[in-house]
Design a protein that fits this description.
Shape of chain A: globular
Order of helices and strands of chain B: HHHHHEEEEEEEE
Strand order of the largest sheet of chain A: 1-12-13-11-10-8-7
CATH topology of the largest domain in chain A: Purple Acid Phosphatase, chain A, domain 2
Oligomer: heterodimer
Number of helices of chain A: 18
CATH superfamily of one domain in chain B: SoxY domain
Largest sheet of chain B: 5 strands, mixed
Largest interface: A-B, 42 and 22 residues
CATH architecture of one domain in chain B: Sandwich
Helix content of chain A: 25-40%
CATH superfamily of the largest domain in chain A: Metallo-dependent phosphatases
CATH architecture of the largest domain in chain A: 4-Layer Sandwich
Helix content of chain B: 10-25%
Strand content of chain B: 25-35%
Shape of chain B: globular
């Protein structure tokens, strides 16, 4: 069984007849049947044979990698999310720490490395294992090449559309932010690429950090008649009027398909509120139920939520909102090979999450019979540039968009000797580099860097260009701050972010990772209660004093006062530091002592 | 969006909810709830103690009291929208208590007979807290609660 069925069947006269078999999704020829695979692993282990993922990487099946995605059913939805404006191919290392607490412990998406491979039956040492895990990342990245990029994605989309007439392409958002060119063109390079790619429906999160006026301009002008921007949970702050259509109905092969939009519920909290001062967000469960019911009553045979909630929120939401056939999710950047089936009072809902940075394309094939969903297949397909020739038209557009900035973007600031990556609950080497630069350039004893999950990966020996720096830092509130914080304030900040990550109730989580910390050492008990997770804090071996003030450098402040104060842009601080260093030695990660998590399959 | 509605409210501005409530006489000292809500209740340290100090009955947890349009995480602690409905027959009043505010009792709404027991307002919250909806119906007290987080913001994404 390839999907994870977390619920018991719920009797319902209306929808109980729907037989939803788990998707027999992985038809790639380098993946064997999961049961068969686990059997072999168990047999090998019993025989004392090493089950070693460091064996030679499987380079076979390259040419046929994309041939196994047979068409199924009569409605197909293609889904990408959180590409963070990565128009060109890149490397992106998945995390080795993605902890699940409470009910989420050991459940997708909170599985990393070998635990993830075993759960989904993916053979180690294959292209898929590389796409979905951090395992032997550098070696595999050199063997399999870069991943993503809109020109390669366009080729895959065209290939799938050719076999799936009428397929819709859904973009889960975080599209207009994440690169230098997206920042400098205020999202225009991405908007043009979305239109050429043939995106049908979109929702958003970071996209809103371009400001409400710019969002309106794109939606009303560029998208008009082409792309539907939907969000049932964005309302005006005064009267609660909808800002965007809550959903759109598209007819696919004669079948009415409703796509409901869910923007990131905590946009005005996780990002500066001043960008969307007149709008209010939130999960808005009751409103969503009404929208789903309305779509059904108007004849929608399939209702799908295009969600930027994050996977944990989607998993909870699906137990409480009825009438959704599937939630195509994003935000938490979880590359989850297969969906999870969740039961509720009205039937079952398939939950997926399609990773980030242009690495994957989700393919959901639905078989609709007698006005109802009868069966489905879902798979998350990695986009390997080496196996998908660049689409010439998209490649030309990207070249044109980049040309005015190319010389600046390509400037090499330093060469990295170690792997630079960001993802992980507590720290990444790229974040450590930012922390080191902040402390050095601002003469601060402690540094904070936000737990963003976007930003590409660099291999040892690669030059760090301006473009790479911008891939980690390109936001519309890049101010570097230097503050005098008391030990108590520092504790409050760490506790606050820890609760956003580890609150046992997903509705109280915000996504993102723990704030990265330089200088300060701490220990954390993710199972602790709100305000009680940070169990120790030391600086230079001495405990932090509650009332003593410490000099703390940081960036990306969300308050309006911080915007008024201003500050040097983070990329300028990074560029100065990198130019002076020339060679970046492998980073020593400042990681907290993590308590109570031994044996958690979300940590390797 | 109805911009006329906005303009009208702008020109008619200046009246706060509180002054409207006061003008209607709902918050007159010694009136109704205010009289029952003795000072001792505000001085108590825990919610349980507070609730016990209020009146003759200990409030019963009720699933007939529901929050609507109320966030899990506040977008702005200075104006947190709270909506409460009561399906309990003969609901006479609905009160909002914020456990960790300096004054826990934030608002009291009298529900005249024949009125739908649904109220909504905005409250100020300094920190994450449980928020209680206390309903008096047919002389008895009922309660429901919801946790609302007030965070520093940032670091998401």
């Amino acid at each position: 069984m390839s999907a994870t069925d977390v619920s018991e069947d719920v009797a319902d006269p209306g929808r109980v007849a729907i037989a939803r078999r788990s998707p027999r999704a992985r038809t790639f020829d380098d993946i064997m049947n999961r049961r068969e695979f686990l059997h072999i692993v168990a047999a090998a282990a019993a025989a004392g044979l090493p089950v070693d993922s460091r064996a030679a990487l499987d380079l076979s099946a390259g040419a046929s990698f994309y041939d196994g995605i047979e068409r199924f059913g009569n409605v197909s939805l293609l889904h990408f999310t959180d590409c963070h404006a990565q128009l060109n191919p890149s490397y992106f290392r998945e995390p080795n720490v993605n902890l699940g607490v409470a009910a989420a412990r050991g459940q997708p998406p909170h599985l990393v490395g070998e635990a993830l491979l075993a759960h989904f039956g993916i053979r180690p040492g294959t292209r898929e294992a590389h796409a979905f895990t951090y395992l032997e990342f550098e070696k595999a990245a050199r063997a399999y090449g870069q991943i993503g990029g809109f020109a390669h994605l366009a080729t895959l989309v065209k290939k799938l559309r050719a076999s799936r007439p009428g397929a819709l392409l859904l973009d889960g958002g975080d599209t207009w932010q994440g690169s230098a060119t997206a920042l400098w063109t205020r999202g225009q390079d991405m908007v043009d690429a979305q239109k050429l790619l043939g995106v049908d429906v979109m929702t958003g999160h970071w996209d809103f950090t371009l400001g409400a006026e710019r969002v309106r301009e794109i939606v009303d002008r560029d998208f008009a008649g082409k792309i539907d921007f939907v969000a049932q949970n964005v309302k005006t702050a005064d009267f609660g009027d909808p800002v965007f259509p809550p959903y759109v109905v598209r007819i696919v092969n004669g079948i009415r398909v409703a796509i409901v939009g869910q923007a990131f519920p905590y946009t005005p909290i996780a990002n500066p509120r001043y960008f969307v001062a007149d709008w209010t967000f939130g999960i808005q469960e009751e409103a969503m139920q009404k929208v789903v019911d309305e779509a059904r009553s108007k004849g929608a045979q399939i209702v799908v939520l295009l969600s930027h909630n994050g996977m944990d929120v989607d998993l909870k939401l699906a137990t409480r909102v009825t009438g959704l056939d599937a939630i195509l999710g994003g935000h938490t950047h979880d590359g989850v090979p297969q969906g999870t089936l969740v039961g509720n009072a009205g039937g079952k809902t398939l939950i997926t999450n399609a990773g980030s940075n242009g690495k994957f394309l989700g393919v959901l094939d639905l078989d609709v019979k007698d006005g109802k969903l009868a069966d489905f297949r879902y798979r998350l397909v990695p986009v390997f540039g080496a196996l998908l020739p660049a689409d010439p038209e998209m490649a030309a557009l990207i070249r044109r968009q980049r040309a005015p900035y190319a010389a600046k973007l390509d400037e090499v600031l330093a060469v990295t000797e170690g792997l630079l990556y960001r993802r992980g609950n507590f720290n990444g080497t790229a974040d450590q580099l930012i922390l080191d630069a902040l402390m050095a350039e601002k003469n601060a004893e402690i540094a904070f860097s936000p737990g963003f999950r976007w930003g590409t990966t660099l291999l040892p020996g690669q030059g760090i260009t301006i473009e790479h720096v911008m891939d980690q830092t390109a936001i519309t509130y890049p101010y570097v701050t230097v503050n005098e914080f008391t030990g108590e304030t520092i504790r409050t900040i760490l506790e606050d972010v820890a609760d956003n990550l580890f609150n046992p109730d997903p509705y109280y989580q915000q996504g993102g990772d723990m704030v990265r910390v330089g200088g300060l050492r701490y220990s954390i008990d993710p199972n602790g209660k709100m305000g009680g997770r940070i169990t120790s804090m030391t600086l230079d071996g001495k405990p932090l004093a509650a009332t003593k003030k410490y000099k703390v450098a940081g960036w990306a402040p969300v308050s309006e006062e911080a915007r008024a104060t201003g500050g040097e842009a983070i990329w300028d601080v990074m560029a100065r530091y990198l130019r002076a260093q020339k060679t970046i030695k492998p980073r020593v990660l400042n990681l907290p002592k993590v308590e109570g998590m031994s044996g958690n399959p979300g940590m390797a | 969006m109805d911009s006329k509605r906005r303009d009208m409210l702008k020109t008619g501005g200046g009246l706060t909810l509180l002054s409207l409530v006061a003008a209607a006489g709902w918050l007159k000292p010694g009136d109704g709830w205010a009289a029952e809500w003795n000072k001792a209740a505000f001085d108590t340290k825990s919610m349980d103690e507070t609730l016990k100090t209020i009146g003759a009955t200990t409030p019963a947890q009720s699933k007939d009291i529901t929050f609507f349009s109320t966030p899990d995480i506040a977008e702005n602690g200075a104006v947190v929208p709270i909506g409460i409905t009561s399906a309990i027959p003969k609901t006479e009043s609905i009160a909002i208590l914020v456990e960790k505010n300096p004054n826990m009792l934030t608002a009291v709404f009298d529900i005249p007979p024949g009125t739908e027991p649904a109220i909504s307002t905005r409250v100020k919250m300094g920190q994450s807290s449980n928020v209680y909806a206390l309903v008096k119906a047919d002389g008895k007290y009922y309660v429901a609660s919801k946790e609302i987080k007030v965070t520093l913001g940032g670091c998401g994404g």
